[in-house]
Amino acid sequence: xxxxxxxxxxxxxxxxxxxxxxxxxxxxxDLPASMVNEATISNLESKTHSEVVYDVDKRxxxxxxxxxxxxxxxxxxxxxxSKHSFVVMTVLGDISEKKFPLxx
Length: 104
Hints:
Layout: E1 2-14, E2 20-27, H1 38-48, E3 51-55, E4 60-64, E5 69-83, E6 86-91, E7 94-99
Antiparallel strand pairs: 1-2, 1-5, 2-3, 3-4, 5-6, 6-7
């Protein structure tokens, strides 16, 4: 099992359809390498011009558009615990367990 401190970002951006979206996310540089397929993510980012991030509430990969960010994007420190093919995250006292077949 490995533990690492990660930064959880909380930000709002305007989507292409004009709606706003608020998301708590981890940037790929803070994720375990086993969760990130660099080629897939780079390809998607080059097409959309948005950053691919891990949404801690939706428990999946999403895109965050920094160019249309509204207001301040805040940061919180948290602990990220990885064990075998499971990742357990402690985010503001909420503990959840999730397998990650995606991007590995």
